[in-house]
Design a protein that fits this description.
alpha+beta; 5-stranded mixed sheet; 197 residues; 2 domains; Ctag/Cox11 (Pfam 04442)
Length: 197
């Protein structure tokens, strides 16, 4: 009787260990899988990444608006460097954002991005973007950051997007994870937000 209970306990323990190992494995795989899901479907306003537009630009025009924000933990000012632009579907466009550090020393930031309306995100493709890499700014440094993009001509085949005439591309900069305020060195920077001056 005691031996049978001991075997049952061992089987239960092994099953629980397998469940825990599976859950840990899923936890590690969830971030890249979620990122892949968002890029493929445009979920949450996640844009696509492409080499170049395929085919010829169409006559349909869409207004692209630009939005910018900076986390209060990063001592930068960050804003679009131009007004909204009208682009033809399938046409490559280039836009700029301006960032200025108000820190006392070097800082590093990373940008998150999304597109609204969310349903248009899977048709908004970036060719090159400052958001693909970390950005380091020295104390008081101002830089213009470029994003090259196009609206995929496949948007014209999606009847659900016939009413979309404006797309907003938004970026928010955050301090690099693992650093305080994105600081590379000890800094007594003031917190900054809002437009670049």
């Amino acid at each position: 009787m005691h031996v049978a209970t001991s075997r049952r306990n061992r089987r239960t323990m092994m099953a629980l260990l397998c469940v825990v190992a599976g859950m840990v494995g899923l936890a590690f795989a969830s971030v890249p899988l979620y990122d892949l899901f968002c890029r493929v479907t445009g979920f949450g306003g996640t844009t696509g990444v492409a080499q170049a537009p395929e085919g010829v630009a169409s006559g349909r025009r869409i207004t692209i608006r630009f939005d910018a924000g900076v986390n209060s933990g990063l001592p930068w000012r960050f804003a679009p460097a131009q007004e909204p632009m009208s682009v033809r579907v399938g046409e490559t466009a280039l836009a700029f954002y301006r960032a200025r550090s108000v820190a006392d020393g070097p800082t590093i930031g990373t940008a998150t991005y999304n597109v609204t309306p969310l349903k248009a995100a899977k048709y908004f493709d970036k060719i090159a973007c400052f958001c693909f890499t970390e950005q380091r700014l020295e104390a008081g440094e101002t830089v213009d950051m470029a994003v090259s993009f196009f609206v995929d001509p496949a948007i014209m085949e999606d009847r659900n997007l016939d009413d979309v005439n404006t797309i907003t591309l938004s970026y928010t900069f955050f301090p690099l994870l693992g650093t305080e305020g994105g600081a590379v060195a000890v800094s007594t920077a003031a917190t900054a937000s809002g437009a670049v001056r």
